[in-house]
Specification:
The chain has 439 residues and is of the alpha/beta class. It is built from 16 helices and 13 strands. Uracil binds next to helix 9.
Length: 439
């Protein structure tokens, strides 16, 4: 296998032989294919696509690049959830302990910020001392003891995804159906699950904004799960506006804690409950949708998932006292209000410019392995359909310095589009589709 020939073949739209693609990927893992050739390959794959067989090779190589968790000894269903990525999507932080409270074991392998979207690991690491780099043995212990644990791909589990994920983040190669599908499904297949829920985002803030493409991604991932004996369900959910109020690692961790307390924004709560209900049905298929939802709502209202989150934070080395005073996650030194310059109806709160501005503020990466600032971000205080008067609060920006604040204020003004008073706003429903079988 000559790496440059593989890249050229894909660049020219060819279909790679399974053995050649596998040799290229394994060569990368062994250090025989350098980063620059992998970056070129990813761009060729992004532009030309991968067919089902090539995608399957990628899934297999990612999965086999590390070990698979054996959790069969756990006395209950093992169900996880993964989102394709959004702005303000902090669902996983609240969902994992809620699902554990509902009798599921949740061994969650999550990601860092990717492109303009935030990552669960960066949000959790806003909690002082929280460790997302556990050994596989420690991860399994925490899942057994607490019911849930969240960490990243490691050198032990899905290391090929870990490296390609970080590279795609900074090389403009994220928004590809086969690359996303293989990345997500390899991690999830490594978790030894009995059921998987996928949250496939739709709208301008999603990697695949159009509903038809998002559905195609959902169907592909459900098919990969089915082919490997993993019952998989996907919800299509709105990402034409940020989820909740907070955008930024620490602010989002705070909002997830508020959700676990039964507070916080209604859309976040709705998505957490709906996803928990789906996970419960994957674990206990005899439950009706209504019964599953009632259980999820009841558990969230009980306060028990917050205590479970506390145990998870402690088990992963984090400072659990943050749960009692989550406002301590607001660590950015500069905070500036952004006010409406005109009266009218909020027509749009565009997620993508906020996600991109967050990177510019230091809350995301422009190069692999860069540290992120946990405190920077936005509170977006308006939603599409809201009526605003001149001078009303649109949001609050949290930045490292005044220069950042100026940039962030502009980003909020650019994201919040205000139309004439009373102008009609067409909403995409928060949950806009469901896929539970391959096409
Ligand atoms: N989440 C992942 O884990 N990988 C992707 O490629 C996109 C979202």
């Amino acid at each position: 296998m000559i790496p440059a020939r593989i890249i050229e073949q894909k660049r020219d739209g060819g279909v790679l032989r399974a053995a050649d693609l596998a040799a290229f990927l394994q060569g990368y893992l062994r250090g025989e294919v350098p980063d620059y050739q992998m970056a070129a390959f990813l761009m060729a794959a992004y532009l030309r696509g991968l067919d089902d067989t090539e995608t399957d090779v990628l899934v297999r190589c990612m999965l086999e690049s590390g070990s698979t968790l054996d959790l069969a000894h756990l006395p209950g269903p093992r169900v996880d959830k993964h989102s394709t990525g959004g702005v303000g999507d902090k669902v996983s932080l609240a969902l994992a302990p809620l699902a554990a409270e509902l009798g599921l074991f949740v061994p969650m392998l999550a990601g860092r910020g990717l492109g303009h979207t935030g990552g669960t690991l960066d949000k959790l690491e806003a909690i002082p001392r929280f460790r997302t780099d556990l050994s596989a043995a420690r991860f399994k212990e925490v899942v057994k003891k607490v019911g849930c644990a969240i960490m990243g791909q490691t050198t032990e589990i899905a290391p090929l995804d870990r490296r390609l994920y970080a590279m795609r983040d900074v090389t403009g190669t994220v928004s590809s159906i086969p690359l996303i599908a293989a990345s997500i499904m390899s991690k999830k297949l490594a978790e030894g699950l009995t059921g998987l829920l996928l949250d496939v985002k739709v709208g301008s803030g999603a990697f695949l904004p159009e509903e038809a493409r998002a559905r195609e991604l959902a169907e592909k991932m459900v098919a990969i799960g089915a082919a490997r004996g993993l019952p998989t369900v996907a919800l299509l959910t709105a990402m034409d506006r940020p989820l909740g109020v907070a955008v930024g690692n620490g602010l989002e961790a705070e909002e997830a804690i508020l959700c676990l307390r039964g507070e916080g924004p209604a859309d976040l709560r709705e998505l957490v409950v709906a996803q928990a209900a789906e996970m419960v049905r994957l674990g206990f298929p005899d439950l009706t949708p209504d019964a599953a939802r009632r259980r999820a709502e009841g558990a969230l209202g009980s306060g028990a998932p917050l205590e479970r989150f506390r145990r998870m934070v402690e088990a992963q080395g984090g400072d659990a006292s943050i749960l009692d005073r989550p406002e301590r996650l607001r660590t950015a030194p500069v905070q500036v209000d952004v006010r409406a310059q005109q009266a009218g109806t909020v027509l749009e709160v565009a997620p993508r410019p906020l996600g991109e501005a967050l990177i510019a503020l230091g809350g995301g990466r422009t190069m692999m392995h860069q540290p992120v600032h946990p405190g920077v971000g936005f509170e977006v205080r308006v939603a599409p359909g809201d009526a605003v008067a001149k001078g009303d609060l649109l949001g609050v920006v949290h930045t490292k310095d005044e220069a950042g604040a100026a940039l962030a204020v502009e980003a909020v003004r650019g994201a919040v589009r205000i139309g004439a008073p009373g102008e009609e706003v067409v909403h995409r429903p928060l949950i806009c589709g469901r896929v539970d079988r391959p096409k």
